[in-house]
Structure formats: structure tokens, C-alpha cells
Write a structure and sequence with these properties.
Layout lengths: L19 E6 L5 H12 L2 E4 H6 L3 H10 L9 H5 L4 H24 L7 E4 L5 H4 L9 E6 L1 H10 L13 H25 L3 E5 L5 H11 L13
Parallel strand pairs: 1-3, 1-4, 2-3, 4-5
Helix pairs in contact: 1-9, 5-8
């Protein structure tokens, strides 16, 4: 549940959230690359959801497990990646996004920037962002096509495997990839339902060209060309 002030508005002590631009979507769509390019072009403050979620939020994740009466340690890797199904994995991921989104909002509330903040990450879900933005143009959802996902798997070292000590690494990777596909499809459906733009990344445009598309979408909120960072 998004934290709200007494007047019903989202709590935003420094006025940061109302200026955020959001890039959500699927894994391996190039969200982080596009965010870095736009931050460099326009002097934006970039926020990486994945970086914070994997590091700064881990203490909060452990505290939440303890509060719920669960063991504080991470679940057994085989239980997470092997002895399950992609649909169950996707459902668990989607169910966890609202809590993780609150942690991201806390990070963003603490930022004070003279330029817009650009937040990117797969946990920045359209249905979570929509209630706190004043226009659908403040968000774009990037999802990879199957062909582009396959290319990313070949070219990105971090996409090669789950990276744990597992009894069946191949099955874990298949489960992970199918989970990611299901989560990306759900993000696209949610965005279209809410009138938020979906960009399907198929590899026919390079990263700069995709960044151009996203910049055009965000144009009303970006600094004018003469004020761009040199």
C-alpha cells in the first residue's frame, strides 16, 4: 500500500516523486542502457531499481521475512529455481513487487535533484506507478521480443545462468527464462490496459535509437536542448 499523507496524496516530502520519469518492463529489454544514455544526454538523475533491490534492500527483505515468521536466510536455491514451475515463479514475483515498490519509493523520496529523476527497473510496474503519476507519458514499458531475448542471452554474460549451486542448472535457467517471459507479458498487458506506452525491443534499432524513442515519449518533461549536459 503506497504511503500517503493526511490529505490523501502520496507522501513526497521533497517533491521528488511527482517529477520522476519511469521505465518499467521485462528483463533483458535494455532498460538500464537506455536510462544511462538519457541520463548522460540530459543530465538526469538515474535510479536503478535492480541495483538497489539486489543490495540496499536486502536488509529490509530479511527484516520482513523475520516479521512474517519466516527464516531470515534466503530460500534454498533448488526450491527457488529448480523444484518449481515458471508460472509459480512468476506469480510469486508479481505478488512481491508491491512491497518492493514501496522500498523503491523510499529511495526516491530521499533524492533531491535539480533535474528530473529517471527510474528504471522491472519492478516498476505500470499498475503500481499509474496511481502516482499525472500523465501516462511519464512512463514507458520496454519488453523484449523472443528474438531479442535470445540475442541478449548469447551476448550478455549475466544472462548466461542463475549462478547458484544447483542440482539442475539447465532446468533452473529454463524456469528463469520462462518466468521472465511471463512477467514481461504481464507488464505489457497491464501497461496497455492503463494507456501506458509499450515499446517492443526487437534488435532492429541500436541502443541509441531506442533511447531516441524513449526521449521522444518523455519530451514534455526533459530539459530543453540548450540546457542539456555537455
Amino acid at each position: 500500500m503506497t504511503e500517503r499523507a493526511t490529505d490523501g496524496q502520496v507522501w513526497d516530502p521533497y517533491g521528488t516523486l511527482r517529477r520522476v520519469l519511469w521505465i518499467g518492463g521485462g528483463q533483458w529489454a535494455g532498460k538500464s542502457t537506455v536510462a544511462r544514455l538519457l541520463a548522460d544526454r540530459y543530465g538526469l538523475t538515474a535510479y536503478s531499481y535492480d541495483f538497489h533491490d539486489a543490495r540496499g534492500h536486502n536488509d529490509r527483505r530479511i527484516a520482513r521475512r523475520t516479521k512474517l515468521g519466516h527464516p531470515p536466510a534466503d530460500p534454498d536455491p533448488d526450491a527457488t529455481w529448480v523444484d518449481t514451475t515458471p508460472r509459480d515463479m512468476a506469480a510469486e514475483t508479481l505478488a512481491g513487487f508491491p512491497v518492493r515498490f514501496e522500498w523503491a519509493l523510499d529511495d526516491l523520496r530521499a533524492l533531491v535533484s535539480g533535474r528530473p529523476v529517471l527510474a528504471e527497473g522491472w519492478g516498476l510496474r505500470p499498475e503500481l506507478v499509474a496511481p502516482i503519476i499525472d500523465s501516462p507519458r511519464r512512463m514507458v514499458v520496454m519488453v523484449p521480443t523472443e528474438a531479442f531475448r535470445d540475442r541478449q542471452l548469447r551476448e550478455l554474460p549475466r544472462a548466461a545462468g542463475v549462478g547458484h549451486n544447483l542440482s539442475d542448472p539447465a532446468r533452473a535457467q529454463r524456469n528463469r527464462l520462462e518466468r521472465d517471459r511471463l512477467v514481461a507479458e504481464d507488464a505489457a498487458r497491464s501497461a496497455r490496459r492503463l494507456g501506458i506506452r509499450v515499446i517492443e525491443v526487437d534488435g532492429t534499432r541500436d541502443a541509441d535509437a531506442v533511447a531516441d524513442l524513449v526521449a521522444d515519449h518523455f519530451r514534455p518533461y526533459l530539459p530543453p536542448p540548450e540546457d542539456r549536459k555537455a
